[in-house]
């Protein structure tokens, strides 16, 4: 459920009103405080929006939500009081954004770390190949030097044989 700024403002108003009065809150409370001025007293739009707000409370288990033909309202409960003390909906959205940003940062750092590890592995492999090539050359040069040394030290004997 993605909440916009107006929804958060309305939800926090309902939460504050519930906690302050320790009584139920209806769509009329929002209407009286100017939250539904944009609907020009269109009862259908007001009720639809208030039902949506109540569904948020119901989904989160905050308050005792009552939606029947006679009235739609929400009353405070223990979870509503605790949620209010923790900062309400605005604080929860901020925390959720911060958590999302932290996850994204962690993901980026993890990706960078993996890229660096891949680069280290590539360079290590290249270094080992160069070391192997150098070792092969060293052995070849050692064998050639040994043979030439043996030939040079025994050149008189070799020339006498020929």
Descriptive overview:
A 3-stranded antiparallel β-sheet has the order 1-3-2. The protein has helices spanning 5-21, 27-32, 43-60, 78-85, 88-153, 155-161, and strands at residues 25-26, 64-67, 72-75. The chain is 75% helix and 6% strand. The protein is mainly α.
Name its key features.
162 residues, 2 domains, mainly alpha, Arc Repressor Mutant, subunit A, single chain, rod-shaped
Order of neighbouring strands in the sheet with most strands: 1-3-2
Under CATH at level 1, the class of the largest domain stands as Mainly Alpha
Strand content: 5-15%
Unreliable stretches: none
Instruction: Label the structural class.
Output: mainly alpha
Report the span from N to C terminus.
Answer: 99 Å
Radius of gyration: 39 Å
Number-wise, the strands total: 3
Shape: rod-shaped
How much helical structure, as a percent, in the residues?
over 70%
Question: Outline of this structure?
Answer:
The chain has six helices and three strands; from the N terminus they run αβααββααα. It has helices at 5-21, 27-32, 43-60, 78-85, 88-153, 155-161; strands spanning 25-26, 64-67, 72-75.
Strand and helix map with partners:
Layout: H1 5-21, E1 25-26, H2 27-32, H3 43-60, E2 64-67, E3 72-75, H4 78-85, H5 88-153, H6 155-161
Antiparallel strand pairs: 1-3, 2-3
């Amino acid at each position: 459920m993605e909440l916009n700024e107006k929804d958060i403002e309305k939800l926090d108003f309902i939460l504050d009103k519930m906690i302050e009065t320790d009584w139920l809150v209806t769509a009329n409370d929002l209407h009286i405080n100017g939250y539904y001025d944009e609907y020009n007293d269109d009862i259908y739009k007001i009720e639809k929006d208030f039902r949506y707000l109540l569904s948020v409370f119901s989904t989160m288990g905050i308050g005792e939500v009552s939606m029947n033909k006679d009235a739609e309202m929400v009353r405070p409960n223990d979870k509503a009081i605790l949620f209010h003390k923790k900062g309400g909906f605005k604080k929860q959205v901020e925390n959720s954004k911060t958590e999302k940003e932290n996850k994204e940062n962690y993901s980026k750092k993890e990706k960078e770390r993996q890229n660096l590890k891949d680069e280290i592995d590539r360079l290590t492999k290249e270094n080992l190949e160069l070391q192997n090539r150098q070792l092969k050359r060293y052995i070849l040069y050692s064998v050639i030097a040994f043979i030439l040394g043996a030939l040079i030290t025994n050149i008189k004997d070799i020339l006498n044989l020929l």
